[in-house]
Write a structure and sequence with these properties.
- This protein is α/β, with parallel strands linked by helices.
- The chain has one domain: Alpha-Beta Barrel (TIM Barrel), CATH 3.20.20.30.
- It is built from 9 helices and 11 strands.
- Strands 1, 2, 3, 4, 5, 7, 10 and 11 form an 8-stranded parallel beta sheet that branches. A 3-stranded antiparallel beta sheet has the order 6-9-8, covered by helices on one side.
- Strand 2, helix 2 and strand 3 form a beta-alpha-beta unit.
- Helix 1 runs parallel beside helix 2 and helix 4 packs parallel to helix 5.
- The longest helix is centred in the middle third of the chain and has 19 residues.
- It is globular, with a radius of gyration of 20 Å.
Length: 299
């Protein structure tokens, strides 16, 4: 396991403000990646977020991998309005989320933009001022959680890595893993055309549960879904939801070897049922690492 990524949701009884936790984890660990999947940019003040992100990344020794996006369906109607966010004329909330993301990326570039006070409290460097604290490499460790091919291409042009979750807008009627594989290929093509001077990273998320004992079978023995699910989410958008994998290790190896998106990606995010507790989730992860990953050639 190379890292831990945290979900972020507002108005729900779970994590909503990720940077205190990311900083705490960063202060207590040395090697692991510490990420999010994802921060809903509709809610964010990009300037304040850049300060928080820079602080947490420096505390962690430049190990943050920040997944950001327009966000998932909300607990409340237009919750971002309660955070003081407003749409521009002709803009929808998805557009606002992308606008906030573009501002955030620009701020992480470190270019000065603010006119210094001629009588400042602290000595200033020459020229316009940037936000501080500044983490020089964080800009290269921002990921975009994409639900469509178009936003994957947009993210590639801006130099963001790609996160593709267990939900995607249904753009072809094909299984999730086939649509995700096409999305990843479109992203990599756009990345190459953009001429970025570094390699892109791509992650996909999966729910995987090896059935090792009676406890596993009691929790997940009947939850292994044979196919993806189709549903309607916000604005009557048709979406495809990825299946869960729950089976004995040899069966999982065969099933996962057929997943085209996993083959196209370089990073796999495992969704775990945190409500079942640390001990049980450590058991699930150990089972995957010991009994499934080697059979698929995963590092």
């Amino acid at each position: 396991m190379d890292g831990a990524y945290f979900r972020v949701h507002h108005f729900a009884r779970q994590l909503s403000s990720p940077f205190p936790l990311l900083a705490a984890v960063g202060a207590r660990t040395k090697k692991m990646e510490i990420g999010t999947a994802v921060i809903d940019m509709r809610y964010e003040n990009p300037h304040y977020m850049a300060e928080d992100a820079g602080s947490a990344d420096l505390i962690a020794g430049s190990r943050l991998q920040l997944g950001i996006s327009r966000g998932s369906p909300e607990q409340v109607v237009d919750g971002w309005r309660y955070f003081g966010q407003r749409l521009k004329e002709g803009e929808d909330d998805a557009g606002m989320g992308r606008r906030h993301a573009e501002t955030f990326l620009e701020l992480l570039g470190g270019k000065g933009f603010a006119k210094p006070n001629p009588r400042p409290m602290f000595p200033n460097p020459p020229g316009l001022l940037r936000l501080e604290p500044f983490s020089a490499s964080l800009r290269e460790r921002i990921w975009w959680g994409s639900a469509t091919n178009a936003t994957a291409v947009w993210a590639a042009k801006l130099g963001m890595n790609l996160q593709s979750s267990t939900l995607k807008f249904d753009e072809s009627g094909e299984p999730l893993h086939v649509q995700q594989a096409a999305q990843i290929r479109a992203f990599r093509t756009a990345w190459a055309k953009a001429g970025h001077g570094r390699a892109a990273r791509v992650s996909v998320s999966r729910s995987i549960f090896p059935l090792m004992d009676e406890r596993d079978r009691a929790y997940f023995g009947d939850s292994g879904e044979k196919a993806d699910q189709i549903g309607i989410i916000e604005a009557n958008t048709r979406a495809v939801f990825g299946r869960s994998y729950a089976a004995e290790p040899d069966v999982l190896i065969e099933q996962l070897s057929q997943d085209e998106a996993i083959a196209e990606a370089d990073t796999l995010l495992l969704t775990i049922p945190n409500q079942l507790g640390v001990s049980y989730n450590a058991h699930v992860l150990e089972a995957i690492l010991t009994h499934v990953a080697p059979g698929l050639g995963w590092r």
